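Q: Hi! First time doing this. I have a protein sequence and I read that you can turn it into a structure. Is that right? Here it is:
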Amino acid sequence: MSLESLGINLRIKLVLATSWLVENTAKLFGYPKTSTGMPIGNDPNGFNNLPIHEPRVPPAPDPNSIFEAVFGNVPKSSAIEKFYYESPQDGYFNFYIEHYRNVIFLPDWISRSIQLIFGIGVDTTGLEIVRDTLFSLIVYFMFFLQFRMMLYYFITINPYTRPWIYLISLTDWIYDLLFHLGITKRATFFGFPLLSILVNGAVGVLADALNHLVFTMPFLPSEGTAGQILVNGTPKDVIMFRYLPQLWYTNPIPDIVRNFWYYERPEIYQFMIKNYGSLKTGNDFLPMRAIYEQTRTGTLKLFTSDLENLSSLGITTCYEPQNWSHELTNSVIDKPEMVINSICDHMGHIL
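A: Yes, that's right. Below is the predicted 3D structure, encoded as structure tokens:
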């Protein structure tokens, strides 16, 4: 037997021995009957029994044209779906999501800031477009990272010549950044560089997290309550967001939402007045357009408890016009001064 054949036989025996050792060790923990692994500890809430949202990153190829079959389809995220529903008890802007172990929400302070700064109400389409766009860009970035790593296996190719240098320049910036942070020198294992593997793994984790990210607007993530509902006769663990959002109680309701209620869905407006009129004044549910129209015709009814509240309303209206101009709709935004003066004159006649 030659020395080469002896080496091949030794490698085969080493692989078989390692496989036997791993398989028999796994059987001690119940494999293949169960794949849950060792118990983590007490789980009174049944969290470990919840399903895991498992989208593929990068997503599975799904070509719909010859171009996509040749060059690949645009990667799309597999985000957790939100199910909206209306109820006479819960209201008209409730939703629930399936309760996964790895569902991700924004921190309350970030969600609150986004809603207050950008005036986002029920519609989160813009945020979902941003999330999906970031996901696609990260997947493409992963492709260039892997291409850069494979390029160094071809010793006949100099990656720092054209056209290769244009491709690796798309990814070298992250390695330069890590080099200046001193991470490059430490990310080695017996002289073997691990940085490329670590960067690919970190980018993959980020892309995977975007697949589990759920926007809860107009609610804060902490307002979700875990429960169960029947779906086709089968109980499912869900997280429900319902009733009056906290931000709509502590801050003004977005005018675009109030405008939709008042002019297109009056039943929602009546529901809000009936169920939450004790928490907020009636004018808090009126859109600025309706307030302006009723002010001009003299039919505006102020929902105030006493004369002191009425006076403070007049002072706030006249001396802080920026609060009003911030709430004006597109139909009157071009003439805010006329609207403010008209409201101030009307308040003066009332007082």
